[in-house]
Amino acid sequence: MSYQKLEQHQQQIHRLSHLSAICGWDQAAMMPAGGSEARADAMAELGVLIHQKRTAPELGDWIANAECEPLDEVQRANLAEIKRHWQDASLLPGTLVEALSLAGSKCEHAWRSQRKHNDWAGFAVNLQEVVSLSREVAQRRADALGVRPYDAMLALYEPGMTSARLDQIFGDLSGWLPSLIQQVSERQQSDALLIPQGPFPIATQQALGREVMGVLGFDFAHGRLDVSSHPFCGGVATDVRITTRYNEQEFISSLMGIVHETGHARYEQGLPRHLLGQPVAEARSMGIHESQSLFCEMQLGHDPAFLALLAPHIRTHFGDQTAFEPANLVKIYNRVEPGLIRVDADEVTYPVHVILRYELERDLIEGRIEVADLPELWDGKMQQWLGITTQGNYRDGCMQDIHWTDGSFGYFPSYTLGAMYAAQLRFALERELGNLSQIIAAGRLPEIFAWLGRHIWSQGSQHSTDELIRRATGEPLNPHWLRQHLEQRYLP
Amino acid sequence: MSYQKLEQHQQQIHRLSHLSAICGWDQAAMMPAGGSEARADAMAELGVLIHQKRTAPELGDWIANAECEPLDEVQRANLAEIKRHWQDASLLPGTLVEALSLAGSKCEHAWRSQRKHNDWAGFAVNLQEVVSLSREVAQRRADALGVRPYDAMLALYEPGMTSARLDQIFGDLSGWLPSLIQQVSERQQSDALLIPQGPFPIATQQALGREVMGVLGFDFAHGRLDVSSHPFCGGVATDVRITTRYNEQEFISSLMGIVHETGHARYEQGLPRHLLGQPVAEARSMGIHESQSLFCEMQLGHDPAFLALLAPHIRTHFGDQTAFEPANLVKIYNRVEPGLIRVDADEVTYPVHVILRYELERDLIEGRIEVADLPELWDGKMQQWLGITTQGNYRDGCMQDIHWTDGSFGYFPSYTLGAMYAAQLRFALERELGNLSQIIAAGRLPEIFAWLGRHIWSQGSQHSTDELIRRATGEPLNPHWLRQHLEQRYLP
């Protein structure tokens, strides 16, 4: 049967990708500087091999044949995913893929110093090249898939999502978010909070982080915590590698970063093990992945009940400070403050950063605006939404993110989709299990994870994102729940 | 030109092997237990791919053509190595390779618990299977290479070496080693030595280890030190990963283990970088590799001048103890004591363990003895050489090593060849640079490494082992130098 051949073929790809993932983690978390050139060559060599397998000439026939074979529901879902991955890999001519990869590497590499020097003119030249090639990629994908160019990029990260729907969803947010930010800012203005006094030794932060991962049910037999300059969740489902970075003067953000990555990790660790190696066993989308990290970080991690649970762990490791009082931790973690930098943003202002980027990248990819327009448009939106300016400050404006440098257009919406999925899941969970804060306070965290495991993790990619969310919550994605969450937490 | 095609092909194999080496290191030093099954599958998948490349059908023609092409000296040496590797990979039918790999995995896996339980009967059944298949491997290799079966196995680790020559070399050792052991034991009987008093915190041992690696010129921009249950030197030449294991109560063996692995590492780091990716840029043989680790550990590391240099580092980390006096460290490190376990043996009795294994594995592979004969023969040789018995104690007798469990027959001689090469190199170096202890005492360690770099590391596999040693020392391998070294150090 062709279907069995496809399964074996996927297994091979999965195994080679396993080694690529581990070596990628090593590159970020372990490798000494001098190893980078030979490693990049080695990774590229394996990348070529994996790409050859993903685009093997026999796959088209096998897929067509398998579509006529008697398959059960899971197999049929797997076949659909196999077909999707095959199309994604095969749609583009190798020369275009290579050109974008080269332009992306060049742009990203130069960006690292150009950003430091606020060198917009230098950056714009490289970005222009990446945008030109990305437009070609988007157009070719659009032609083949019969969708709009930007939607063809979105499909790489959030299959099924369209810009028409994003316009609607983000339009909804735009209706209530600015005034909510305004109200919360006013209300918090008089809030005094205590800053924990360091130093906080790295080794102690690490021990605390591992302890909290344990509280969150991270399976240390199938994963590790290490250090890298940009935190991420990598590795493979059977061996999940999360990373963080430490600052001796401040443990607050690193600790919550670990909580965030643990959310990603538990999703990976909870994927259907018996289907391992098949696409149907993989995470559904970037948005769903982010929903799991944000569920851990925002729904759980920033909940006063969770911070009350955290406080004694913090005291055990860093001694007693008034700043460690749960009420003060709540103030620290739930502080809302408009700022220029996305990765430093709180959960209330974060969607602003995403919607801004979404609107710009959508128009950029579809040719309605040009690279040269970005700084002014960026500044305008920042002023309009958050009342702050990035004029002349490219570094903290349209040069702050890595995503566009390598052509990852279509990725940004995943962050806010994740926040919305997380809120929606939270209220669905509460309808079944009761109030989240009370569950946490009662030390019943495992029930929360069992619920997520049942409804999200164990489902892998068996259903479309819409169907997955509908089954878990009773309705498709609805931004109402993010609003309800934010209003409950910040305007009680 | 066919030669260029071969070079590109080797580069591909090298890059894929790079990822295999890093993931292998990760498996031993980083991977959590639950990751092992999927990792083994992934490594096997890449192993198959690499094997396919090593045995690609076009290689035979390319090699034949390249042999008629105009090549310079280095290219010709590279071609010879390419041909050797191709033969090694192609000589055996895939079914035999797979059968041995399966039998080896099974035997090794079971051995881990059988050894603990002294279960010779259970082990013998699996070992018999491994021996049968290894005999077939040896015979097929022998037929193709036109040499004796055991020599065909030796060629995998020490190309150019034969059992006829080993009989002669080890015969020489057998002539003087037993009485030397006897004399040294008697002389040391009255030596009192002080044992350093722990605990020695792991983190401090690690810091000390890294410091000593620095003293030995390890390049941390191209390598790391980590922990694994069996110390090794892995990774790739541009990124060498060495490991050790720690015991809170005792730092003496771990520290010298680091010195040993640093010797391996400096060889790798010193291989000709401009030829990276080609076989000619690889280490010459297992024996030469071991000569570099043993040069570091025994010639340098156990030298009183080096231990005098080490003492202040030890004191800085562990405070002041009389046991840290250089004279006492010399007594600790140069203690000679016949024992049952090879890996715990001192440099004087170590060759006994190797010669014993050599004689048994040679006769086993060539069918003169059977698995069932091993315990009695082992015990007899231990009694004869060291006056100790392994009767009924299989665990510390013929079940103590991992090598035979997976069919690595022909490897053991490398250890003692390495010790002999190291001694011979030492005296050659002294003829050029002067007395080694004085060079160390004068803080001129870099000169020693520059000499090794010039004569060994930078040579890669450009010459045969014999030629390499002849060029470096003026004569082929000569066991006289090991004797001279041992007599100078232990019977001054």
The overall number of domains of chain A is 2
In the CATH hierarchy, the third-tier topology of the largest domain in chain A is known as: Neurolysin, domain 3
Rg of chain A, Å, rounded: 23 Å
Topology, number of strands of chain A: 3
Sheet bearing the most strands of chain A, described?
A: 3 strands, mixed
In terms of DSSP E residues, the strand content of chain A is under 5%
Uncertain segments of chain A are: none
Distance between the termini of chain A: 59 Å
Briefly note the structural class of the backbone of chain A.
mainly alpha
Task: Compute the average pLDDT of chain A.
Answer: 97
Subunit organisation of the chains: homodimer
Largest interface: A-B, 35 and 35 residues
**CATH class bucket of the largest domain in chain A:** Mainly Alpha
Specify the CATH architecture of the largest domain in chain A.
Orthogonal Bundle
What global shape of chain A is seen?
A: globular
Helix and strand element order of chain A: HHHHHHHHHEEEHHHHHHHHHHH
Structure description:
- 2 copies of one chain form a homodimer.
- Chain A folds into 2 domains: 2-90; 118-492, Neurolysin, domain 3.
- Chain A contains 20 helices and 3 strands.
- In chain A, helix 3 runs antiparallel to helix 4, helix 8 (163-188) runs antiparallel to helix 14 (350-365) and helix 11 (286-301) crosses helix 16.
- Helix content of chain A is 64%, strand content 3%.
- Chain A has 492 residues and is mainly α.
- The longest helix of chain A has 28 residues, at 2-29.
- In chain A, a hairpin with a 2-residue loop joins strand 2 (233-236) and strand 3 (239-244).
- Chain A is globular, with a radius of gyration of 23 Å.
- Chain A has helices at 2-29, 36-54, 59-66, 73-90, 94-116, 120-145, 149-157, 163-188, 202-215, 252-270, 286-301, 304-318, 326-333, 350-365, 374-386, 413-433, 436-441, 445-455, 465-473, 480-490, and strands at residues 223-227, 233-236, 239-244.
- A 3-stranded mixed beta sheet of chain A has the order 1-3-2, with helices on both faces.
- The model of chain A has no long low-confidence stretch (mean pLDDT 97).
- The A-B interface holds A 12, 15-16, 18-20, 22-23, 26, 30-35, 37-39, 41-46, 49, 219-224, 236, 238-239, 276 and B 12, 15-16, 18-20, 22-23, 26, 30-35, 37-39, 41-46, 49, 219-224, 236, 238-239, 276.
- Chains A, B: It comes from Aeromonas cavernicola.
- Chains A, B: Pfam families: Peptidase_M32.
